[in-house]
Amino acid sequence: MGFKRDNENPLLCDAVIADEASMLDLFLAYSLVKAVALGKQLLLVGDIDQLPSVGPGKVLADLINSLRVPVVRLTQVFRQAQQSAIVIAAHQINQGDYPTLEPISDNPVSDCLWHSGGYQPEHGVQGICELITDFIPRLGFNPVCDVQVLCPMSRGLVGTRNLNAVLQGLLNPPSADKPEIVRSGMTLRVGDVFDKPLKASVAKLTREDDSLD
């Protein structure tokens, strides 16, 4: 499988702008350059400190370090305020320093807070549960609709599978008026929050499964 555009059938434009160029690997970059006609402009936009390519090669970083192409570095962050704790922590991590983060308190004034409740997985689960059920509601947020928990893997105590089950038990516990089904070891219960495609499939299963009548 290849691309429809190449050196024999180039893109019909005067300039090509490729965003998220840090994710370009050698093969994709090769295909992109082939599709840009001679005499046309190619602008690569990206951050070499963000997600790298899945395939081989660090195309954007190598181009910048080669000093063979014009490079413009943008240093002002507009996505967050300049004094955002997220921005400050990101710069510290990028420089190899441990980030300075504010501990969680009853009166948070930061957009990035640090919960230090121990270094064992079970401490992480306990801390997340406390934040979801106590701290976040006190700030006026709905723990079901306004919160998303991100974790780096699916297995383990602090993986998606266990955390989903634990948080489901806290935020949408079982009851006689909430039909539920079990699929692949996962309980899907009326009132759970999923992405839209999953909601549709759950609704279909609910209608077709006689055990939920």
What does this structure look like?
- The chain is an alpha/beta fold.
- Among the domains are: 15-66, no CATH class; 175-213, no CATH class.
- The chain has 6 helices and 6 strands, in the order E-H-E-H-H-E-E-H-H-E-E-H.
- The strands form 3 sheets. Strands 1-2 form a two-stranded parallel ribbon. A two-stranded parallel ribbon has the order 3-4.
- A hairpin with a 2-residue loop joins strand 5 (180-183) and strand 6 (186-189).
Please tag this protein with its features:
single chain; 213 residues; alpha/beta; two-stranded parallel sheet; 9% strand; disordered C terminus
Helix and strand topology:
Blueprint: E1 15-18, H1 26-35, E2 41-44, H2 59-66, H3 85-94, E3 102-103, E4 113-114, H4 121-138, H5 160-171, E5 180-183, E6 186-189, H6 196-208
Helix pairs in contact: 4-5
